[in-house]
Amino acid sequence: MLRKIKYPILFQGDLKKKHYFEGWYYKQISQDERRVISFIPGISLFDNDEHSFVQYIFVRMDENNNRITKTGYLRYPLEAFKFKDSPFSVQVGENIFSESMVSVKLLDDEINIEGTLELGDFTPIEKSILMPNIMGFFAYIPKMECYHGVISMNHSLGGILKINNEDVDFTKGNGYIEKDWGTSFPKEYMWIQCNNFKNKTASIFASIADIPFMKKAFRGFICNLSLDGKEYRFATYNNSKLKIDKITDKNVMLSLENSEAILKVEAILKEAGELIAPQKGKMQKVIKEELWGEVKIHLYNKQDYSIYEDVGSMAGIEIVGF
C-alpha cells in the first residue's frame, strides 16, 4: 500500500471494488504545436455497468487556422483491462499505456487513431515522507472521494500517430501525465495544466476542489510549478495561501503565496470539448475540458527578488460547479 501511495502511476484499486473509478491522463502536444491529444484509459466499477474505457480529446488547427475539437468515449469489457506493476503498464483492448510508450488503436464514428509514441524521461514532482505524492499527507487518509497523482510534469515525445489518415508527428513534442481514482470527481473543482511555455522547462498544474472530509467539506488546493529544475509547491497542506481574484466561464485569475514565492496565474478558455467524469464510480457526468487554452504566469521569488513571467499555450482547463 505504501508503495502505491508513493508511486501513484500504479493501479491503485482492484477489480472487485464497487462504485470505484480509476483513470490515467496522457497528454501529447505535436512539435509544430498544431495538434494536441489526450488519452484517458481507465475502469468504471458500477453495479451492472462494470467496464473499461479509453477517452480521448483531440484538437487541431486546419489549413485555414480553424480550430477543430473531437472527443470520444470507447467502452470495452472489464476483462479487456490488464495491468502490470513492474514494469508499469495498463492495457485496454489493443491500447497500451506505460512509462515509456503509448500505443493506440482507436476507432469510432468520429475518429480513427493508430500508432505508437515513445515517452522521454519524466519530470517527477518532489516527494518526502509527509508528501509522498502531490496530495501531501492527505494521500495517507483512507476513503477520500477522489485521489490525485501527478506522474510527469513534462517529458519529450517521439513517434507518429495516424489520425483520420493524417500522419501527425509528435517527435520533439512534449507530454504530461497525471491520474485520478476514487468514487467521484468533486462537485466543484477547477483544474489548470500547461507545459507548453516559451521556457521549455516550465510546467504548471493547479487544482482547487470542494473536498468532503469527516462529514463536512473544505476547499482544498494544490499548485505545482516546475521551472529550470526547481519546484514551487503551493498547497493547503503546506500552509500556502490562495485567492481567487476572478472566475468566469472564460477566464480565471489566481494568486498563490508560500514562504518563498508569490505566483499569479491567469487561465483563458476558448472552446471546450465534452468528456465524461465519474459519479459514485459510474462514468455519467458530462464535463467540459479546454485543451487549447492559454496560461499566463507571474512568479516573484522572495529569496532572490527575481521575477519570472511566461505565457503558455495548449493548456488544459476545466471549471466545474463554480
TrEMBL record:
It holds the Pfam family Tocopherol_cycl. It comes from the Bacteria. GO terms for molecular function: tocopherol cyclase activity. InterPro entries: Tocopherol_cyclase (IPR025893). Coiled coil: none annotated. PANTHER family: PTHR35309, TOCOPHEROL CYCLASE. This is Tocopherol cyclase. It comes from Clostridium vincentii.
